[in-house]
Design goal:
The protein is an alpha+beta fold. The chain has four helices and eight strands. It has a six-stranded mixed sheet, with helices on both faces. A two-stranded antiparallel ribbon has the order 6-7.
Length: 200
């Protein structure tokens, strides 16, 4: 089974990186995800089971990928750590700034999102000023036989400082949770500071 690798030539040397982040931090985080999926899927296929990519629902897949990226970046970044507050915001916070490196709603750090939607438009639980990083990944569910499917891979990564005014509020149904998504201007701001463009 093929192991995906990050194409370091597709990283943007001119990107604005806050909190002493380095392009290498993003590259290593993506490669960590690739290595995990390769190892797990190799084991699953050897036992005649479905790939993890095919078993997980899209929302579960995005949540797991986001958590893995957060953990990896926290391990390699120089000044950022994982937010220890359960479901706290943002996902990565500045080391030592908040008590016990835990905050329910902090201002300094980076929120990590992942999605299959090209361009980086992703729903959030609310509009707020923040550094937001969006990883866009691709999965193959069409190729047959399934053992020949392309492993999941990242095609785009964006990072930008956005404000409340960069969001549009989404309508909420009776049972739905209110969400917010970057509006046209917000998306332009996000895409302007791209980190990784595989086809760019």
């Amino acid at each position: 089974m093929k192991r995906q690798t990050v194409d370091s030539t597709k990283l943007n040397a001119d990107a604005e990186l806050p909190y002493q982040l380095r392009l290498k931090d993003f590259e290593i985080a993506m490669q960590d995800v690739y290595d995990f999926f390769h190892d797990v899927n190799t084991l699953l296929l050897a036992r005649g089971l479905h790939r993890l990519d095919d078993m997980l629902r899209p929302a579960a897949m995005s949540g797991m990928v986001s958590d893995m990226l957060t953990a990896s970046m926290a391990k390699h970044a120089r000044s950022l750590v994982e937010n220890r507050h359960f479901n706290g915001h943002p996902d990565l916070i500045v080391q030592g700034l908040y008590a016990n490196n835990a905050v329910k709603s902090g201002e300094e750090g980076i929120e990590i999102k992942s999605t299959r939607k090209p361009g980086g438009a992703v729903d959030t639980h609310g509009a707020r000023e923040q550094w937001m990083c969006v990883f866009v990944y691709q999965t193959d569910h069409e190729t047959e036989p399934a053992v020949e499917r392309t492993p999941m891979y990242f095609r785009e990564v964006y990072l930008a400082h956005v404000t409340v005014d960069d969001f549009r509020r989404n309508p909420r149904g009776e049972l739905g949770t209110r969400t917010a998504t970057l509006d046209r201007r917000g998306i332009q701001k996000l895409r302007a500071n791209w980190i990784y463009l595989l086809n760019g």
